[in-house]
Amino acid sequence: MRRDMVIWLTGLSSAGKSTLGENILDRLRAAGHKAELLDGDIFRGHLSRDLGFTKKDRDENVRRIGFVAELLAKNGIVVIVSAISPFRATRDEVRSLIPGFVEVYVNAPIEVCERRDVKGLYRKARAGQLREFSGVDSPYEAPLRPEIECRTDLETVEESVQKVLQYILRYMQSR
Question: Quick one: which of 16, 22, 27, 123 could link to 152 by a disulfide (CB 3.0–4.6 Å)?
Answer without folding.
Answer: 16
